[in-house]
């Protein structure tokens, strides 16, 4: 396996485990949040999906896009299945883009997000994106524990 194949495998594995958690959230827990400042479960799922699309655009742009008109912005938050289905077109495009890079480009391409306080290599960014998702999936597991709901086992 080369580096790109490993990065894609990691992205797919993180998403597979996220989907196990997301789809296990009971309907009555979708709008639960630990406090008034936090995102609720469904908002967090959307945040992950929308962020992946944003990061895809940042990678294509080799830096933060000048404007970001989110296709998620005016969509009602209804359920997990709808969110995942809508995001699938963006996910496929993102994974296709990732598959086109070479091992050399992982270190030679720089993603300039100076306004957020960093410039990272493409390889670094491609590892941070699934890490972001994994962190939020962990938060959702904690939400479910805090709210007293059953938690999906993701460690298979």
UniProtKB/TrEMBL annotation:
InterPro entries: DinB-like, DinB/YfiT-like. It comes from Rossellomorea marisflavi. Signal peptide: none annotated. Gene3D superfamilies: dinb family like domain. It comes from the Bacteria. This is DinB family protein. Residues 12-140 form the DinB-like domain.
């Amino acid at each position: 396996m080369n580096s790109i194949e490993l990065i894609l495998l990691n992205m797919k594995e993180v998403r597979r485990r996220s989907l196990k958690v997301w789809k296990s959230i009971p309907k009555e827990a979708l709008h639960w949040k630990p406090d008034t400042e936090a995102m609720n479960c469904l908002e967090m799922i959307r945040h992950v999906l929308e962020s992946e699309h944003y990061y895809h655009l940042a990678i294509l742009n080799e830096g933060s896009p000048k404007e970001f008109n989110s296709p998620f912005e005016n969509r009602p938050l209804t359920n997990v299945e709808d969110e995942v289905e809508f995001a699938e077109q963006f996910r496929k495009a993102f994974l296709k883009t990732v598959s086109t890079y070479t091992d050399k480009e992982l270190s030679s391409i720089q993603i300039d997000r100076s306004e957020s306080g960093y410039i990272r290599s493409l390889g670094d960014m491609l590892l941070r994106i699934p890490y972001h998702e994994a962190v939020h999936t962990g938060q959702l597991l904690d939400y479910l524990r805090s709210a007293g709901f059953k938690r999906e086992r993701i460690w298979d």
